[in-house]
């Protein structure tokens, strides 16, 4: 049996991981991304999970600006980024044993890194 132990992830670490994801995608020649905000954002339900097309280089700055505007809280709000088949999400699993996870992988077969 596999046992996962988790701990809270600091917002700065999540932003660093998001930045790294964007750098890796850019190195693969990807120039654009789709950003979405989900649960635990300060958006109306019909504003959640809406595609926000952005240049890949602007994703982290957009997330920071959204946090400063009070739309989201990094480390609490669900954030999803898709870039040509690559997907990253910082979201809170809906089960109590996991406090936060970062999921990175292909859209069809994602690999999860749990913190």
The number of distinct structural domains comes to 1
Question: Structural class, from helix and strand content?
Answer: alpha+beta
Give the overall silhouette: globular
Helix percent reads: 10-25%
* pLDDT < 50 stretches: 94-115
Strand order of the largest sheet: 2-1-3-4-5-6
- What is the arithmetic mean of pLDDT? 78
- The helix-strand sequence is HEEHEEEE
- Percent range for β-strand residues: 25-35%
Main pleated-sheet profile: 6 strands, antiparallel
Total number of helices: 2
Number of strands: 6
Structural write-up:
- This protein is globular.
- It starts with 10 loop residues before the first helix and ends with a strand.
- Residues 94-115 have low confidence and may be disordered.
- Helices cover 23% and strands 28% of the residues.
- It has helices spanning 11-27, 59-68, and strands at 32-37, 52-55, 79-83, 86-91, 101-106, 110-114.
- The protein is of the alpha+beta class.
- It has one domain (11-107).
């Amino acid at each position: 049996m596999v046992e996962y132990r988790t701990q809270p992830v600091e917002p700065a670490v999540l932003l660093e991981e998001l930045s790294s994801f964007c750098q890796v995608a850019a190195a693969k020649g990807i120039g654009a991304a789709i950003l979405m905000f989900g649960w635990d954002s300060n958006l109306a339900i019909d504003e959640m999970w809406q595609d926000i097309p952005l240049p890949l280089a602007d994703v982290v700055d957009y997330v920071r600006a959204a946090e400063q505007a009070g739309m989201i809280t990094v480390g609490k709000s669900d954030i999803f980024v898709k870039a040509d088949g690559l997907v990253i999400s910082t979201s809170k699993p809906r089960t109590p044993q996991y406090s936060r996870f970062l999921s990175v992988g292909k859209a069809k077969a994602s690999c999860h890194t749990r913190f």
